[in-house]
Design a protein that fits this description.
The protein is an alpha/beta fold and 270 residues long. It is 40% helix and 19% strand. The radius of gyration is 20 Å and the shape is globular. Bound molecules: S-adenosylmethionine.
Amino acid sequence: MQSANEFEYRPEHFQQIKAKVYQLAGIKLSDTKDSMVYSRLARRLRALKLTSFDQYLHYLDSHLQQEQQEFINSLTTNLTSFFREAHHFDHLAQYLKTYPGEKRIWCAAASTGEEPYSIAMTVAEHYGRFDYPVKIIASDIDSQVLTKAKQAVYSIDRLENMSAARLKQFFWRGKGKMQGQARVVPELSNMVEFQTINLLHEWPHKKPFDIIFCRNVMIYFDRPTQLRLLERMAKIVKPGAYYFAGHSENLAMARHLMLPVGKTVYRFVN
Ligand SMILES: C[S@@+](CC[C@H](N)C(=O)[O-])C[C@H]1O[C@@H](n2cnc3c(N)ncnc32)[C@H](O)[C@@H]1O
């Protein structure tokens, strides 16, 4: 545990925080995350001008409605990148070729937007237009990353591995004050609708999906939570819908719901 910190941080503080983030977001923090938790939440203590973790935990309980979003935002891990696990986007392009027509895609842990914009680029490239009726709904529990996603502005070094053709077609390079940054063109950003959704809570979707991208978020949940979410997803997809999982997510326990059709790509058996 931390010592000589700005704020006193005892093992029971970490245990309470761990229990709270599990209860609110389903996220299971391992015991190795104690210093990460300290440094992320120390910022909240400073912002709120609190002087101890005891005070913060009391504040969190007594102002739960106000504070829970900040608490969750502080503790999520939002690592992502454009065309991460590139084989998924090849698979998506192949899917669009095999099953033409209107589609609804849910990107269920969209983080700062790189993933849903990669989906949108794949769709736009496939149809050769931005206005084909493919609806991409991108959601995340973390309101702060979604704000960044909606701004659609990225540092040029985040685009290093993108082909020159994609850069030209899908981004505006910043000039002057925006030097070193690039903005997703509005035609592409308009293809994506962002929503704040906690996967543990109710989902607002009214119509079924053809494809779900739910990558690198299940790893933060325990097995019963993963299974519960997959069972709920199976109920909101069209027959034979596709599911894209993160590279280290093993969904073998859900064989009754979905079968593998590629590397970390599954098909619902509904
Ligand atoms: C590591 S990022 C993955 C981003 C992207 N899917 C990818 O693979 O590159 C995990 C995301 O899951 C989100 N997340 C964590 N718990 C969640 C929950 N209960 N409901 C919705 N999103 C959650 C986090 O805020 C974070 O942005």
